């Protein structure tokens, strides 16, 4: 009989695929809820399913951490567990989001109106079992995947991604080394290229009106926004609508990937862009316009190596699976796409490269990409 295995609290548990023979190992005895590790694995798999099917799910969390009295907490959790049993359907999944502190329910196969109706039902059921004082100790939160209002809200709802925190813990030493490398590398980069921080501002000022630096809001890890720095390569007061429309078509696959990054406005640059200054063409071709991003790295907003950070309006055209490139690692100055694809790949191919980097990431991979970057810059392959 075929078996599958998974980890619960660091221990391997085997389960027969043909039955629920061992399903009792996955639930606690007191409340009948899935154990924390297994429930979070289910949440991860539901996200993946939704990415493919486009059918949303709803995660409800009941947080009991504010209840100090242990006996009172046990009684309230027992009442809440009973409510969950009566409220949920067979296709819904109940478990510990945090053991003995936060209960979770994944409501599958929902529509847009279900969140409000479920919230009302939850309130009504709790009022029948618990008094108002007891209910006030429970923090109830609702999280829809894919996240609602994604066009207006770039920042991710991290409650839907508990596996990312766990992954960070397992790679804590490697991430510390990456951050150390970022600090040392960016300081060395600023020192090594210090003459350019004097020469290039003079050339920019002499050849066009406007500031030396181009500042733009970009989206970093977990969807957090930050101010992205570049040496200005375009004339001031240009219309961003040109690039915005280009990017929309590029991400949706309606536009050939032969150029688009109006002043750092995306991962691609518009070839023969009339908005670019004469010195700006040289800066872009040589990638010297990227040098100020060493300061973004020093501030911890970026890394030396990672996916390129998008502009907020790019997210409006992102598919669900595209957003993974924003969640699991900091954006970088260079990366696997810049080294192996640059401006000669489709957007989907670029995202797949980023996900490959995220999945296979190691310090040694970063070092290899950093060593390959100068050659790519010198040859100017794929740059405009």
From TrEMBL:
<dbReference type="InterPro" id="IPR017475">
    <property type="entry name" value="EPS_sugar_tfrase"/>
</dbReference>
<feature type="transmembrane region" description="Helical">
    <location>
        <begin position="183"/>
        <end position="204"/>
    </location>
</feature>
<keyword id="KW-0808">Transferase</keyword>
<feature type="domain" description="Bacterial sugar transferase">
    <location>
        <begin position="178"/>
        <end position="378"/>
    </location>
</feature>
<protein>
    <submittedName>
        <fullName>Undecaprenyl-phosphate galactosephosphotransferase</fullName>
        <ecNumber>2.7.8.6</ecNumber>
    </submittedName>
</protein>
<keyword id="KW-1133">Transmembrane helix</keyword>
<keyword id="KW-0812">Transmembrane</keyword>
<dbReference type="Pfam" id="PF02397">
    <property type="entry name" value="Bac_transf"/>
</dbReference>
<dbReference type="GO" id="GO:0047360">
    <property type="term" value="F:undecaprenyl-phosphate galactose phosphotransferase activity"/>
</dbReference>
<dbReference type="InterPro" id="IPR003362">
    <property type="entry name" value="Bact_transf"/>
</dbReference>
<keyword id="KW-0472">Membrane</keyword>
<dbReference type="GO" id="GO:0016020">
    <property type="term" value="C:membrane"/>
</dbReference>
């Amino acid at each position: 009989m075929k078996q599958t295995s998974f980890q619960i609290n660091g221990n391997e548990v085997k389960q027969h695929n043909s039955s629920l023979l061992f399903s009792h190992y996955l639930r606690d005895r007191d409340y009948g809820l899935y154990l924390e590790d297994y429930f979070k694995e289910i949440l991860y798999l539901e996200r993946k399913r939704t990415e493919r099917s486009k059918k949303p799910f709803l995660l409800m969390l009941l947080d009991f951490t504010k209840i100090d009295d242990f006996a009172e907490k046990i009684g309230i959790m027992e009442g809440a567990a009973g409510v969950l049993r009566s409220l949920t359907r067979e296709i819904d999944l109940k478990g510990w989001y945090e053991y003995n502190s936060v209960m979770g329910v994944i409501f599958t196969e929902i529509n847009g109106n279900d969140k409000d109706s479920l919230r009302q039902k939850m309130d009504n059921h709790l009022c029948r079992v618990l008094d108002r004082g007891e209910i006030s100790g429970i923090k109830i939160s609702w999280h829809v995947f894919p996240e609602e209002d994604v066009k207006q809200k770039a920042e991710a709802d991290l409650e839907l991604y508990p596996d990312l925190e766990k992954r960070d813990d397992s790679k804590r030493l490697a991430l510390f080394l990456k951050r150390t490398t970022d600090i040392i590398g960016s300081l060395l980069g600023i020192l090594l290229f210090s003459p350019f921080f004097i020469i290039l501002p003079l050339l920019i000022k002499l050849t066009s009106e406007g500031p030396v630096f181009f500042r733009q809001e970009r989206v970093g890890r977990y969807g957090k926004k930050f101010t992205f720095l570049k040496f200005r390569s375009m004339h001031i007061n240009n219309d961003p609508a040109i690039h915005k429309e280009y990017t929309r078509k590029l991400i949706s696959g309606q536009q050939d990937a032969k150029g688009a990054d109006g002043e750092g406005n995306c991962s691609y640059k518009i070839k023969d862009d009339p908005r670019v200054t004469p010195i700006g063409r040289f800066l872009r071709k040589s990638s010297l316009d990227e040098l100020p991003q060493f300061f973004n790295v020093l501030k911890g907003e970026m890394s030396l190596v990672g996916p390129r950070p998008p502009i907020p309006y790019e997210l409006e055209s992102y598919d669900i699976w595209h957003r993974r490139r924003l969640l699991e690692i900091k954006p970088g100055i260079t990366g696997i796409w810049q080294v192996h694809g640059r401006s000669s790949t489709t957007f989907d191919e670029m995202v797949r490269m980023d996900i490959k980097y995220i999945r296979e990431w190691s310090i040694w991979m970063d070092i290899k990409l950093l060593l390959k970057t100068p050659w790519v810059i010198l040859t100017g392959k794929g740059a405009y």
